[in-house]
Design brief:
two-stranded antiparallel ribbon; 6 helices; Tyrosine_recombinase_XerCD; globular; DNA recombination; single chain; alpha+beta; Site-specific integrase
Length: 162
Amino acid sequence: MDFKEHTINIDYQLQKKSKIGYYIQETKTTSGTRKIPMTADVEECFRKIIEKRNPPKAEPMVDGKSGFLYFDKNESICYSLHWEHYFQHIIQKYNNTYKVQMPVITPHVCRHTYCTNMAKSGMNPKALQYLMGHSEISVTLNTYTHVNLEDAREEIARIQVV
């Protein structure tokens, strides 16, 4: 994160394999390497996370990278699988409490939701493609953006000339 420029720099991803351990991998495509503008709300959230984070006694270094935001109770760096498990736990706890069941939601589903919401808000499709890190606009519009009949009705009503 670059708080001076108010951007989030996406130029690598943290991975973990059982026999290798943690390692840093480049983004899948050159389009995946990008800078995303940070809104004031997002910046405030990240500042609070950094302020309240409880790093391990020795700051971990992975392939020359440090400053990881989240650690589990064993002081290991949180990576994608941790978040998958957190989501599963939350859904299971909710579904054990309430009759109306919550569907399976993953961190990746959140990417789809973000993309859909930005498209519905009228964001320029090319800007959305950049933010999502997709090399092809068809992935942004056909895979990540989900609309239905009600969305089409709202859009027709919005542009209809009275």
